[in-house]
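batch job 7 of whatever, protein = DUF1232 domain-containing protein
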Amino acid sequence: MNKWISNVGGLLGGYALLKAPVDGSFLNGLDPLVDGVGLIAVTVFAGALIYSGVRDWFKG
């Protein structure tokens, strides 16, 4: 259960990075980097959730 909660937290964190409004702040130049990190985080944690779900499905 703890691994599931961590993966969902990482997925939500990546989504928050994708939706972070950095226009008009000192982080404006880092907008492509923040979007890239958010996209990678969402992809990795979604894949981890799918993998653990399929693994548990065939295990039980």
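notes: Helices lie at 2-18, 31-59.
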